[in-house]
Specification:
The protein has 599 residues and is mostly helical. The protein folds into three domains: 3-39; 130-455, no CATH class; 468-588, no CATH class. It contains 26 helices and eight strands. The chain has helices at 3-11, 14-39, 46-59, 71-80, 99-110, 127-154, 157-168, 171-177, 183-206, 211-229, 239-249, 254-280, 323-341, 350-357, 365-388, 391-395, 409-427, 432-446, 448-455, 468-475, 489-496, 509-517, 527-530, 534-539, 544-556, 584-588, and strands at residues 65-66, 68-69, 91-92, 484-486, 500-502, 522-525, 567-568, 577-580. A six-stranded mixed beta sheet has the order 2-5-4-6-8-7. A hairpin with an 8-residue loop joins strand 7 and strand 8. The radius of gyration is 26 Å and the shape is globular. The protein starts with a helix and ends in an 11-residue tail after the last helix.
Length: 599
Amino acid sequence: MPLQEWIHSLEEGKGVAFVKALTFVAAFLVIAFIYDVRDFKNYSTPEAMDTAQLARNLAEGRGYTTEFIRPLSLYLLARQHGGKLDLNSPHPDLANPPAYPYLLAGLMKATTMDFRAQRGAETMVQQPEFRIAILNQGLFLVALWLVFGLAKRLFDEPVAWLATIALAGTELFWRFSISGLSTMLLVVILLVIVRCLVAAERGARESEWGYGKLLPLALLAGAFVGLGGLTRYSFAWMIVPVLVFFIANFGARRATLALVALAAFLGVMSPWLMRNYQVSGTPFGTAGYALYSDTDRFPGSRLERSLNPVNLNSPADLNKADAGEHWDKLVANTLSMMQNDLPKFGGSWLGAFFLVALMLTFQRPALVRTRSLLVISFLVLMVAQALGRTHLTAMSPDVNSENLLVILAPLAFIYGAGLFMVLLEQINLEYLQTQRLVCGIFLTILCVPLVHTLTGRVFPLAYPPYYPPVIQENAAYLEKNELMMSDMPWAVAWYGQRRCVWLALDVRKEFLALHQAHPINALYLTHLTLDNKLISQMISGTEFEWGRFAAQAAVNQEVPDGFPLKYGLATLLPEQLFLADRERWRERKRPAPPGGPAK
């Protein structure tokens, strides 16, 4: 290419787009570097640790097995295989769909990871978690590229840049990028689905595409919904708005395209659901019981910690649950979302602009139909989120795997940016530079939370209760084939690399039942139990037995008669309680670990 043509390309042609894209990517990488250096925080959600330890098992060739053992999972396995509790064999995971764990397992195989917990002030960040964050930030960058292309197709380039920069400057999404959750992967999957639907709608309407071009897009859309369902089971509900989109917008070809999409969805999902059913007798394993969890009958985490959820002599009986309880849960959680989640939807003011954009009259059919798809998706996922909400949302209200609405935020930002540009045109500013200045001010306001975060610095550990070195040292007192019980088994499984069963519902009956199936060699209680309120949670609440047990062990240094774990590690008190079947720490001939990190 002659020099003159090359210069012209950089000034006015395709070179301008390349320079803009390169500048944006460079800015994104700079923000990512600063964010990771100053604001990276180790995992604080059970879902992230659970998924990571499962991925490690896959990477190490141990199959789809978990070291985080839920009593409910033991119940399902026993019901399916003769009624006997099995704590001796590798425990199949029944809580997590496979797509994201396999992605992480691929990362762990491709890179050498050091799973030893770091204690020093300069090395508190755990290497595997940091590398997983880099992977998710790569998915974030892919999502931004998809948002730009979709916004440009639906609106124009100024709207595309506004929506993309606003999404890149949303602090909530950066928190998700380091959380270890599958949210970024789901955002990418959703955007691919919408790109397929928008392309099919436009091709059928403008170019009169036939089945030869429409069927592959329907197949791809359905398959990606299935992939999303294998990333997070609740995402499978997205098949409803996808089918509605095909039925509403494709005339005589509606039935064929909808059936192809549905067949692709079922083809992707069915093999895994059959695996779950063969192993546990349920298509979704323990995840399918989220509908019953966190209700009046099973408050908090009691259902997953229950070794016998079908008990005719107790109100906590799955067979006694009825549709009225599900309705109450739906109404209560929907009201909570309308009061708390919608006002801060997507972590940006563009979420509010999207809600206003619902009242605009668009001339382009693609805008109207895609907006209808977004609204239906919003309603469907709101119902799914309300019915599937568990104790995980209470533990981490904003950044959790049950937050489905945030997945729709990038699409909502496109319409919010479109509304802003419509309003800007109504002002009728004379100069292009003035329009750009107004857009710059608007984007600056949207990015203030992220700027504030980048200029500060956070403590890199989610403590209390998670201090990886102490968790790993306590777990090291047990051999690989031994068993621990804890109120944070996900952390013991991830950081400690030991099998750990979730704290039983009571000290005597269910604990002893588990102990008889396989000796429990240690009990590890943390702030999650010891920091409960004395009256409302320990004495009159659902944790009465363990509250009284912990108080007696910590204060009076005694355990109930017949309790098999009688030896306590005194240096962990009063922040943590570690009981074992013998003084294992003396056998190690090393000093006991401290109770927590110094900030």
